Amino acid sequence: MELKNYETVFILTPLLNETQMQETVEKFRQVLKENSADIIHEENWGLRKLAYPIQKKSTGFYHLIEFMAPTSVVDVLELAYRRDEKVVRFLTTALDKHAIAYNERRRKGEFKSQAKKEEVKA
User: Fold this and answer.
1) What is the pLDDT of residues 48-74, one digit of tens each?
2) From CA 42, how far away is CA 108, in angstroms rounded?
């Protein structure tokens, strides 16, 4: 069984409180673990403004999960997203070798340090 790297971003409705948001994220984390996915990295981007209104909402809670799993897991995860009314939008992408290298560098903070160096020069 071949494992691939994936990255999924989902937006939750802004009507949730912090506890409900964490429970929903944990539910999707559990879906991945039950289907033998290995979670590599996770980021909570918090409440952000949407580019355009979706379901009459202009903000949403963004969450990113990077994981390694068999290809069949994506269908199960996206079905869970579709069944949950708290999810406004989602996107799951397969990562190529360049995206994997970029994510590793981003996690190490290489890009933040470069931005700080540029600020100091200016």
Assistant:
1) 999 999 989 999 999 999 999 998 999
2) 14
